[in-house]
Specification:
With 579 residues, the protein is an alpha/beta fold. The protein has 19 helices and 17 strands. It has two domains: 164 residues, no CATH class; 326 residues, Rossmann fold, CATH 3.40.50.1820. 43% of the residues lie in helices and 12% in strands. α17 links the parallel β12 and β13.
Length: 579
């Protein structure tokens, strides 16, 4: 790959101009996209502030020098000679791992030049003089969106995998990619999995059970026992209302519901309704009253057990904890134990989603749907996907449309694409009081169902599960729950992320989890004393739950009772309703 000095000079000049152009476009992008900055900047400010002049000069100098070294190294290569990359993708970044990127000096150069520019823009975003932490996080989020979107892997002309696939298939991959694009446009979303491979009730949510109660917001499922004897104290599960419940009951091998039933527990589960205009006026209090509070009463009536065990997952845990605080505020003793899976009660650090929640965005929601309306589940799904755009958006743009491939069947991704609408007043109240103002942690600050709630009155034993790589509920934030609840807490840290770490089936016994008897108030101090245990945290939690299960009694094979009769077989119709 020998080039003349004139060609090198021309190439370097072109690269630097491209870098400047990319940076200029980047700032234009931030100015048009970021309402967060507009909230903190003076009204007279015409545009986003740049980093300090000297700092920006140093960053540009560093970028130019890096490009010069990259070009010099590439220019000195002999035909057919491979070189060690000067810059590598971040760990876990699989966009440029295919051999086509390294076998061609042209595409090898393109990918490395992009990585240099991406690193430069990330440093520029870090150097922006924005004092407000939430606004700064939003700038960095928008920067990631821009960087990810500009990747050469996303464009046919700069993706050698697209070219190779077209050659190998004699153009059929291009034709199929167009078909895939048209099909996804008709669906209104990007396909992440083979949708035809799954069906709720056929190979998802198949644990045998019956719907024994329903109201405008929930169906309550009672699962059939699989053991001759069961623990007397049942378990009520409250999953998140922002997703379908069957994340708790995927396929038999990775179903948490089936696992708990097999441990000898009578299990009840809340299936939230996919909100329509009929539910458009329901607020936070409605979700508490018609959700866990109503379900708890049914469970008590059916089992004749005054204090069931309860479990909440993600926002389901926030709703459940609030409901328990309401009941305790009324003088009731509502449950034997509480399990919270990846749940926020203190929103000081609300994870990556928090950077998108500011006064302007919340006020806009309140004005549009705060008194009535429906918040689209698809919109929410797009927001969550954007937090991991390379994995949950661009990977499928490239695979489906450029390469013409059909995504593999994956139950978690099928569930992830199965969106759920929410009542507008509920989500508006939740965003303001939790993510924006962080009011739940303050005793007596919030009134729910006529009660000034205090989480400190929830003084039952609690098992708290967080996951180490969770970007939605940072584990250090989940740890803060220990300082809010009034009872004894057991904290366990699982490996992996928000979903894969929580749904880590005991049947496969993969990954690991960390435990410690330390009661440290600081998360990192707890971690310093923790020991790693191989396998699934489910096993550890099951032993903890059995200690709170009471005596063993004969299993009742007939669901419900005279008051709460079987309405239909599980999984029920609420979970099958689509957006």
């Amino acid at each position: 790959m020998s080039v003349t000095p004139e060609q090198s000079a021309e190439a370097l000049q072109g690269m630097f101009k491209f870098g400047q152009s990319m940076a200029a476009n980047f700032f234009d992008f931030l100015n048009t996209q970021s309402t967060a900055f507009q909230q903190i900047a003076p009204t007279s400010a015409p545009s986003l502030p740049l980093p300090e002049a000297q700092q920006l000069v140093e960053l540009q100098k560093e970028l130019a020098e890096s490009h010069a070294r990259l070009w010099a190294g590439m220019a000195q290569l002999k035909p057919g000679e491979a070189a060690e990359p000067m810059v590598r993708p971040q760990p876990g970044d699989r966009r440029f791992t295919a051999p086509e990127w390294s076998s061609s000096p042209v595409f090898d150069y393109i990918r490395q030049a992009y990585l240099l520019n991406a690193d430069y823009l990330a440093k520029v975003a870090e150097a922006l003089p924005v004092a407000d932490g939430r606004a700064k996080a939003r700038m960095q989020y928008l920067t990631r969106q821009y960087i990810d979107a500009m990747a050469p892997s996303n464009f046919a002309a700069t993706n050698p995998e697209f070219i190779q696939a077209a050659l190998d298939s004699k153009g059929e991959s291009i034709t199929q990619g167009i078909r895939n694009l048209i099909g996804d446009m008709e669906k209104g979303r990007i396909s992440m999995t083979d949708d035809s491979a799954f069906e709720i009730g056929r190979n998802l949510a198949t644990t045998p059970g019956s719907v024994i109660y329903e109201n405008e917001l929930i169906q309550l499922i009672q699962y059939a026992p699989t053991t001759e004897q069961v623990y007397k104290t049942p378990l009520l599960i409250v999953p998140p209302c922002i997703n379908k419940y069957y994340i708790m009951d995927l396929q038999p091998a990775n179903s948490l519901v089936r696992f708990v039933v097999e441990q000898g527990f009578t299990v009840f589960l809340v299936s939230w309704k996919n909100a329509t205009e009929s539910e458009a006026r329901f607020g936070w209090d409605d979700y508490l009253e018609k959700g866990p509070i109503a379900a708890l009463q049914v469970v008590r009536d059916v089992t004749k057990v005054a204090k069931p065990n309860v479990l909440g997952f993600c926002v389901g845990g926030t709703i459940l904890s609030s409901a328990l605080a309401v009941l305790r505020g009324k003088g009731e003793d509502p449950a034997e134990s509480l399990t919270l899976m990846t749940t926020l009660l203190d929103f000081s650090d609300g994870g990556e989603i928090a950077c998108l929640v500011d006064e302007a965005s919340v006020a806009a929601r309140e004005a549009s749907i705060g008194r009535g309306g429906v918040f689209s589940g698809r919109e929410l799904a797009q927001v969550f996907s954007s937090l991991r755009a390379n994995d949950l958006i661009w990977q499928y743009v490239v695979g489906n449309y450029l390469k013409g491939k059909t995504p593999e069947a994956f139950d978690l991704l099928y569930w992830n694409s199965d969106s759920t609408n929410l009542a507008g007043p509920f989500i508006a109240w939740y965003l303001r009081n939790m993510y924006l103002e962080n009011n739940l942690r303050v005793p007596g600050k919030l009134e729910m169902l006529g009660v000034k709630v205090d989480l400190g009155k929830v003084d039952l034993p609690a098992y708290l599960l967080a996951t180490r790589e969770d970007h939605i509920v940072p584990w250090t934030s989940a740890y803060l729950v220990r300082g809010l609840l009034g009872g004894e807490t057991t904290f366990v840290l699982g490996a992996s992320g928000h979903i894969a770490g929580a749904i880590n089936p005991a049947s496969k016994n993969r990954r690991s989890y960390w435990i410690s008897d330390s009661g440290a108030s600081v998360p990192d101090e707890w971690l310093a004393t923790a020991t790693e245990q191989k396998g699934s945290w489910w096993v550890h939690w099951a032993e903890w739950l059995k200690q709170r299960g009471g005596e063993m009694v004969p299993a009742r094979n007939k669901p419900g009772n005279a008051k709460y009769k079987v309405l239909e077989a599980a999984p029920g119709r609420y979970v099958k309703e689509t957006v």
